[in-house]
Amino acid sequence: MESNFFELMQVQQQKQEMAKILECNNNTSEFGLVLSEEDVNKLMLSRKLLLTENQRVEFGEGILPKIIHYFCDSQYINQDNYADSLDQLQDIFYLYKNETEDRLTDDELLDFMKQQFEEVCFGDFEYLSTTCLERYARTIRAGEYNQKKSRLRDEYSLTDKENEYSKLSEEARWEYEVYKMKLEDLF
Amino acid sequence: MKYELDELLILVKELSEIYTSKESTSITYERAQQLMDAVLYCIHENEMISDETLTDLIISNHNKKITAREAYDTGYRLVVDKIKKANELYNRIILDFNDYRNRAYHDTVLKGIPEFFKWYDPRLNPMDHIILADYPVLKNVYGLNGIDFIYPYLTCIEKEQKFLLMFPEEYIIEILQHYHSDFEELLINITAIVLKKVLVNMLLGLRVDKTKLDQDDYKKLSGILNNLSAVKLDEIMYLNLRRLINKIYSGDEGMYDYLSNEIANITAELKNASSNNCLANII
Predict the structure, then answer these.
(1) What does DSSP assign to residue A19?
(2) Does the CB of B281 have a partner CB in chain A at under 8 Å?
(3) Which residue, A76, A170, B135, B226, is the most exposed by fewest CB within 10 angstroms?
(4) Alpha-carbon distance A182 to nearest alpha carbon in chain B (angstroms)
(5) What is the pLDDT of residues A163-177, one digit of tens each?
(6) Is the CB of residue B25 less than 8 Å away from at least one CB of chain A?
(7) What is the pLDDT of residue B47?
(8) CB under 8 Å to B140, separation ≥6 — which residues?
(9) Hey, is A182 helix, strand or coil?
(10) Beta-ladder partners of A58
(11) For chain A, how long is the longest CA-to-CA vector?
């Protein structure tokens, strides 16, 4: 059942995504970037392989529209390398979603990728993937992740020491005697 | 399967949105599988409703073909209700809880179970009860998971505490010390050890509070065990257990059923020790 389950998920969301990606042309055309249907088909096919390779599933619209949104104004991407660039970027994206153990949101990862791509790698995908992101992922896995939000994310790692306050807190979380005392008051 | 995969996938998709807070478009296979398991767990919970607890009206509704969403939603509510019941039960247990110096008992009930209530996630991971529950109970609940494991596990702990609290603490500690000098560190069931002692005393016609047997007692016990078949011994043990429950625990059927789980072990152990002349090592 397992393989059937994941394949069905992918088929279902592919139908919706094609139109979404083509819609992005409306915004990217001002940067001289347009995807043809053939390009989109190739990207979708590639995305399918990448998802399988990285053992991931997508339910909604997929990551391509977001990648397009982040990178459409890059000074290193033009119409000639647009489709290829997107293909490489989605490859890198899925790889590092896994490498960072899903501790980053899509936006956090894409934000970092874009910033490094423009200011450190100067458009070099190889350098972005094998050096900048590799180092970044290692730091994330070590626990120093870029927590933009102050809220706890317990559902990810089941720990309660993920924000600054928890690190400083010296309060006991569970005290049998206190709990018992409170119960005795109740009954 | 009773439901179409499409129906289940919609539920998995919704759970994935909760899991990622809609901030990630993809999840790993492993996580998707976990979410699918979470959906199936709640659906299974709905299917498990005992007919005895339902009114005719609910049964007739229940037998109608329901959608996966209805089954999931009802199942999820049942899981949450069960957590509340388990929490109330736990609160009752720990008021008078005594671990009799056994570390596994102490850690499981006073440290482990609160961690369960703190971290258990009925929405995204209901099949994971998180804790190890090292203290072994007499009922086989170990094939279960999530709250389906914790709730019956707590009912076992409640029965054990009710059973043990009728005896003075010093009496129980003495029996445990005789059982093993390092009893504090062992993964043992305290109730089973005390029950064995009590049933043997009843078999010998001794007072229950006599903790140490003398040579004559062992000789008498050996004689009784050699003259009885395993089946007959079983019968007597069940009978004595019934007498004990009726006399001290007001005929508590739940307690009788629970302690009955140990009778076969006790008789087998006694027969074995008798045939190997080492009764003093186990009683």
Answers:
(1) H
(2) no
(3) A170
(4) 10
(5) 444 454 444 556 667
(6) yes
(7) 87
(8) B261
(9) helix
(10) B26
(11) 75
The answer to whether B28 contacts A8, with C-beta atoms less than 8 Å apart, is: no
Asked if B121's CB is within 8 angstroms of A12's CB, the reply is no
Q: Give B158's contacts (C-beta < 8 A, 6+ positions apart).
A: B89, B92, B93
Least confident range of A7-11, A134-138, A160-164, B266-270: A160-164
Answer with the residue of higher pLDDT: A60 or B26. B26
Q: Measured between alpha carbons, how far is B115 from B150 in angstroms, rounded to an integer?
A: 12
Measured distance between the N- and C-terminal CA atoms of chain A, rounded to whole angstroms: 50
In sequence order, which residues have a C-beta less than 8 Å from that of residue A73 and are 6 or more positions away? A31
Question: Half-sphere exposure of A87 toward its Cβ, with a 13 Å CA cutoff?
Answer: 15
Strands A56-58, B26-28: pairing kind: antiparallel
A61 in B contact zone (CB under 8 Å):
yes
b/e per residue B195-225 (b: at least 16 CB within 10 A): bbbbbbbbbbeeebeeeebeeebbebbbebb
Those residues with Cβ within 8 angstroms of residue B107's Cβ, 6 or more apart along the chain or in another chain: B134, B135
Q: What confidence tens digit (pLDDT) does each residue in A99-122 have?
A: 999 989 999 999 999 999 998 899
ipTM here? 0.74
Flag whether B146 is in a domain: no
On whether the CB atoms of residues B112 and B79 are closer than 8 A, the answer is: no
**Confidence category of residue A141, pLDDT binned at 50, 70, 90:** confident
Query: Domain limits of chain A?
Result: 2-147
Q: Which residues of A touch B28 (CB under 8 A)?
A: 55-57, 98, 102
φ, ψ for residue B27 (rounded to 5)?
-135, 165
DSSP classification of residue B228 = S
Whole domain around residue B263: which residue ranges?
A: 166-283
pLDDT at B208: 85
Q: Which of residues 68-127 of A touch B (CB under 8 A)?
A: 94, 97-98, 102, 105-107
Spatial separation of the C-alpha atoms in residues B264 and B277, rounded to whole Å: 20
pLDDT band at B239 (very low <50, low <70, confident <90, very high): very high
How many folded domains does chain B comprise?
Answer: 1
Q: Is residue B186 included in any domain, yes or no?
A: yes
Lowest mean pLDDT among A113-122, A127-136, A149-158, B177-186: A149-158
Task: Answer yes or no: is pLDDT of A54 > 90.
Answer: yes
Residue B157 lies in a domain: no
